[in-house]
Specification:
Helix content is 38%, strand content 12%. The protein is of the alpha+beta class.
Length: 192
C-alpha cells in the first residue's frame, strides 16, 4: 500500500491542501473566511493544532502543521473540514446577500446546486459536499522541504496576481515570516 498522501506519523509536520468542490470561489466573502479562521483558532486551543504556515485563497487553503502529543493530524484536519462545511453551507443558505446561491445569470448552477450535485455523487455525503475529500498530506521531514513548501504556500497569492508581495496578502502567515514586529491573523509556530 502506498504511503504517498497519507498521514503516516502523528508527531510529524505536514503540508496539506484543502479545496472547495468545483473550485468555487467561496472565500471571497468575510463571513465564510471568518468561519474557517475561527475553526483554525478553535483547533489550536482545543485539539492540539500547531500551525507553522498557512494561506487562504479564494477556493482552497494550504497548511503546514503538526499536532501536539496525543492528537492526530488527520483527525484535526477532518474536524476542521467537517465543521466548516456545515457552518459555511448554513451561512450561505441564511445569507440574504449571497447572490450566487441559486442559478447564475449565464444559466450555470448556483453554489448550493453545485454542492448538492457533488453530494449526490458520493454516498458518504448527507446532502451536500463542500470540500474535496483529498488533502494530499506531504510529510515534511527535513528543513529543505519545510522551507520549499513554506515559500510555495506564501507565494500563492503572488502567483495568482492578487498581490505583488506575499506579505501583503492578509490571509496568510507571510506577514509573520516576512515582516518585523507584525503578526498575522492566526498564531503560528515558525518553522525557521
Amino acid at each position: 500500500m502506498s504511503t504517498k498522501y497519507k498521514f503516516t506519523d502523528k508527531a510529524a509536520t505536514y503540508f496539506t491542501t484543502s479545496t472547495i468542490v468545483g473550485w468555487i470561489d467561496i472565500f471571497t466573502r468575510d463571513l465564510y473566511r471568518d468561519i474557517l479562521l475561527d475553526s483554525f483558532r478553535f483547533c489550536q486551543k482545543n485539539q492540539g493544532l500547531q500551525m507553522h504556515a498557512w494561506v487562504l485563497m479564494t477556493n482552497h487553503f494550504h497548511l503546514i502543521y503538526s499536532c501536539a502529543v496525543n492528537y492526530d493530524p488527520a483527525i484535526v484536519l477532518k474536524n476542521i473540514k467537517s465543521y466548516t462545511a456545515l457552518k459555511i453551507i448554513d451561512a450561505i443558505i441564511r445569507n440574504p446577500g449571497e447572490s450566487r446561491k441559486e442559478c447564475l445569470p449565464a444559466g450555470e448552477a448556483g453554489i448550493l446546486e453545485t454542492f448538492r450535485q457533488y453530494g449526490e455523487a458520493k454516498k458518504s455525503n448527507h446532502q451536500y459536499q463542500f470540500w474535496q475529500h483529498e488533502n494530499h498530506p506531504i510529510l515534511l521531514d527535513n528543513a529543505e522541504m519545510l522551507e520549499q513548501r513554506t515559500t510555495y504556500l506564501h507565494e500563492n497569492p503572488v502567483r495568482a496576481g492578487f498581490v505583488e508581495l506575499a506579505e501583503h496578502w492578509k490571509y496568510s502567515s507571510a506577514t509573520d515570516y516576512y515582516t518585523k514586529n507584525k503578526k498575522g491573523l492566526l498564531e503560528i509556530m515558525s518553522v525557521y
